[in-house]
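Sharing a chain and its predicted structure for anyone who wants a worked example. Both blocks are below, sequence first, tokens second.
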Amino acid sequence: MTCNNCEFHPELYYDKEFQIWVSVEADGSFLVGMTDISQTIAGRILHVRVRRPGTRRPPGKPVATVESGKWAGPIPNLMDCVIVEGNEVVLNRPLLLNQDPYGAWVARVQPSTDRDTALAEFVTGEEARKGYCARAVDEDIHCERKD
């Protein structure tokens, strides 16, 4: 599913700015990644740094930082969690976030609360699709992948 050529996955959870996505894994951990909108705005991603495994990250404290040729900033965090691991493949090849933003997750985290509480600030399904498409259209964002 796309909107302004920006890929969207309705089964994922999104922050309300549509910068990050979260997937719930079978073991109860969450994968965190950048959305297609986010990677497009950032431009060619040159470096990713994930906080050390075992580090607690309260809401508002990023799980990672990303640098591109024109931007450097946090991967936002809306939940109380502990870093389990960074994606070594992405840490070694950050451009994967531009090439496959939904396959190239950034960090695995373990929520410090129950699943529903941890996901309370996220949107999913049709509500997320509407917001995601509205942002792409309102801000005239046309997603593209980098080689």
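Comments welcome. The chain has a mean pLDDT of 95.
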